[in-house]
From TrEMBL:
InterPro entries attached to this UniProt entry: ATPase_NBD, PilM
Family matches, as Pfam families: PilM_2 (PF11104)
Highest taxon of the lineage: Bacteria
Origin species: Pseudogracilibacillus auburnensis
Protein name (record): Type IV pilus assembly protein PilM
Length: 324
């Protein structure tokens, strides 16, 4: 999304409020993957995607650099889901394509508004023969700079910041043997404390929605410390209710996409499921009961003859950035 330089060996980092996952590769493919790693974050270090305890995060990352010999490595990371805002805008016909970013920059705070100051953004052209339409993905510069400065302080070299939905889609394309351009793919990523929904059609992101679950991180405990496997120890009935609420939300979003965005002319054709929540198979069963649509869990092919858990899919998508 926002690129700062070229890459050789790269550490690709995914940061959730409760865990960090990393993949090291040569910056463009998975055949060059050196290792995967997963480490649980100290509680209340990252909250809602924001670094709230900079000292603890610094010390945590400093130890990771030492443990995995990452000093002076280049780094890519995702903007936390919570911080991404998506806007679709129409650019006046008189504005030339090479002036679009300048136009948007001038209009931020005037005709284009975000719930934060000083946004950093990237834009994606939409296929419309009659109008100059673009999708803007923006994030607060202040929060991204916090991550970049901490990485700099521990001798890591940030080269790019990406959007996780784009990385997951990138991995999906790599994993697919046959892509069907007429299909509309809804990606549902269910994690321990959040649900992330994105809709793609013809390689364009058309919808993004992040929603925090009404589940406390304290209700999840490590069932297996070595392999970082989680077990829910809270109210199971409440958790099942949260899952049901998310399925109802998908109903609303698919109807919104079909009738409000595309006036009944386009609808979701496939649901792609991923995430680190242990109940993902149960969610798959519920989705199949509700919809007469293919529901496909996104899985990981064996890499270097080793099994890789689905939790690493976003990190693998980031590792593919820059490849073909």
């Amino acid at each position: 999304m926002f690129t700062f330089g070229k890459s050789k060996r790269v550490i690709n980092i995914v940061i959730e409020d409760y865990v960090i996952r990393m993949v090291e590769n040569n910056g463009k493919d998975l055949a060059s993957m050196k290792y995967l790693a997963e480490k649980v974050l100290p509680p209340d270090t990252i909250v809602n995607g924001k670094v709230v305890d900079e000292v603890t995060f610094y010390e945590f990352m400093k130890e990771l650099v030492r443990e995995y010999s990452m000093k002076n490595r280049q780094v890519r990371f995702y903007v936390p889901h919570e911080l991404i805002i998506m806007r679709e805008i129409t650019i006046p016909d008189h504005v030339l394509k090479n002036e679009w970013k300048q136009y948007i920059t001038m209009e931020i705070g005037q005709s284009i508004h975000f719930p934060f100051t000083n946004p950093v953004f990237d834009l994606y052209e939409l296929p419309d023969k009659n109008e100059q339409k673009v999708t803007i993905l923006a994030a607060p510069e202040e929060e991204i700079i916090k991550y970049i400065e901490i990485f700099d302080d521990i001798k890591l070299k940030p080269i790019a910041v990406d959007v996780q939905a784009l990385g997951v889609y990138r991995y999906f394309l790599w994993e697919q043997e046959r892509f069907q351009s007429e299909k509309v793919y809804l990606f549902l990523e269910l994690n321990l404390t959040s649900a992330n929904i994105s809709i793609f059609h013809q390689h364009k992101v058309e919808f993004l929605r992040f929603q925090r679950l009404n589940v406390s991180p304290n209700d999840w405990h490590l069932d297996d410390v070595q392999s970082v496997r989680w077990k829910f120890t809270g109210d199971e009935t409440f958790l099942n209710g949260e899952m049901e609420d998310q399925l109802n939300e998908i109903d609303r979003l698919m109807n919104f996409y079909r009738f409000s965005i595309h006036r009944g002319e386009k609808a979701v054709t496939d649901i792609i499921l991923l995430g680190d929540i242990p109940e993902l198979d149960h969610v798959k069963t519920k989705l199949k009961e509700r919809y007469e649509l293919p529901v496909t869990p996104l899985t990981v092919k064996n890499l270097h003859d080793q099994e890789v858990s689905r939790e690493f899919i976003p990190a693998l998508g980031l590792a593919l950035k820059g490849g073909k």
